[in-house]
Input
Amino acid sequence: MDEILVTRSSMPQFQEYVDEIKELWDSHWLTNMGVKHKELQKKLEEYLGVENIDLLTNGHMAIELSLQALNLTGEVITTPYTFASTTHAIVRNGLTPVFCDIDPNDYTIDAAKIEQLITDKTSAIVPVHVYGNVCNVEMIQNIADRHHLKVVYDAAHAFGVRYRGKGIGSYGDVSCFSFHATKVFNTIEGGAVSFRDPEFGRIMYGLKNFGIRDQELVDSVGANAKMNEFCAAMGLCNLRHIREGIAKRCVLVERYSERLSGIAGLKLMPRQADVVPNYAYFPIVVDETVFGVGRDEISERLARHNIFARKYFYPLTSSFVCYENQFDPDDTPVARYVSERVLTLPLYEDLTIEDVDRICDILLDI
Ligand SMILES: *Cc1c(COP(=O)(O)O)cnc(C)c1O
Output
């Protein structure tokens, strides 16, 4: 049997990409906000339903530079149940992450537990729309308003998600998207920020382009995080097929749900109200005492059939070796519980219903 990995990059037809990049051979304009960059930026503003987008080299730089652009200080309330990037971006800005526990149903930050973590040093909240699940955006905004905090969403998983009729990137001060090869929408590597405040946009533009305002004026100490034309071209191609891709994922998620719901000891993600989802991931949380077999054992048994699921997110970022002795994972018991039991099953556009059935058969055999 062929290997099934947890994810597989979506790609356009080879010829479609070749046609898209042909102009670059005519113009010799390969980066620095060229035509592909501009076109993708505009198309994404429309597709994502947000006012402003700026394109970047990757999702991590979107978060790291956003925190810098907002000139944050002191402490930032965030979640340890995320990819390394979220926490690293905070620490790399010289800020202190303060970890809040997560909601046991959708695994996003538990908004009811944020306020008790606020001190006079707190400057922002950095929640994550984990697996494309929408955070409690109303409550988070309410807390932020009352305490004068910025809200920067890590929306790396939430491409195309809509909540109450609005694009997910229109909530908070800034939302950071990842267009990494493994995400629902990819530009090979890439990312973007969505934001409302034009002043934020101006600062971000400086940070992504050495602070160069024009040929003779450099007005900020910027880095380099510009998306190049080849990546933008990949994005233009992939964006043409995104609806179809998400529809394919939907069929697979429904099949997984049908086969695995109601199995004692396997917890699936509930569907969120008022949300148009993107079907980015299919995590299960395994309760060994009920299911009989634990997460690690399931993962190994699937691997024996050449199926590679991932313990995503394990370990918690607060347990990383690079942060040894700095944080206590017991401060976030729900996050700890979930991360020790979660297994993310393979899910990508080209996965077939037969593959899903095979994966479910192995699981149910156990
Ligand atoms: C992928 C991801 C990132 C980082 O994005 P890159 O484009 O890989 O830099 C950040 N946060 C989360 C939750 C992610 O899944």
